[in-house]
Amino acid sequence: MVVEGERLVTHVFEALVPGYRGWHWAVTVARPPRGRAATVCEVELLPGDGALLAPEWVPWAERLQPGDVGPADALPYLADDPRLEQGYEATGEDADVLAIYELGLGRARVLSTDGRAQALTRWYDGDHGPHAPAAKAAKAPCSTCGFFMKLAGSPRTVFGVCANEWSPDDGRVVSTDHGCGAHSETDAPRPAALWNPSEPVIDERDLEVLSAHAVAPEIVEVADAGAPGEPSEPAEPDLPGQIALEQDAEATADAVPDLDAEPAPSTDVDAPSPSTDVPATSQH
């Protein structure tokens, strides 16, 4: 356990996940003031001594080796390439030595006109001419590349030698209209990020079921409407029902007294007074 701060500690556990030998889990928990339950802040899987790790990442430009450039590949532009210099600064050649070499002095035989023409035609129609897949995919021809070394004599107008170790044509005779992805003046598109993040993976089958109170739907009576454009027919009156309703209304009116009516005048009826005359009873 590592104490990170006040009420903040990190517990370390050995990782038992297959393939992660030497790794360990680090779980950081915190407890609020006057609280009893701790809260998990973060969980990490960290390498330890003897952990199997990937090699240190090397940028693509530094990881690339000669021979890795294919016909459809392109190298990034290097503004300060130590292998190149400005054309007007290239000096140091003896003009007399070049002239003697061009004439072929010191050699018993040199190429004839036919032999030279056959060689140039074979080179031009081969894999290092303008019809090669790399030349069709290139952004610029070899004639504008700083690594293009022209041949001596008459072939210099059509052919040269590639001197770029990153090019698949390094050390080979190429035509001036040939090309590849290792051109000294072209550039490759640079991505905005080192890698493109993948889309998130969403498990739609693992759903969290939430309980909700059922609400009774409101019952709305909607009259049956006819089809659009059809005239509505008037409803037929229910005569027996209307007669029964009228009779019930009359009976109710008769049973309820009219409170607003004036009371009828009362008539005094004299009760018969007891007679004082008592009939005589016959005495025998």
TrEMBL record:
Polar residues bias (residue ranges): 273-284
Composition skew (Acidic residues), residue ranges: 247-261
One Pfam family named in its UniProt record: DUF3027
InterPro entries linked: DUF3027
Disordered: annotated segments: 174-196, 225-284
Descriptive protein name: DUF3027 domain-containing protein
Species assigned in the record: Georgenia yuyongxinii
Taxonomic lineage: Bacteria, Bacillati, Actinomycetota, Actinomycetes, Micrococcales
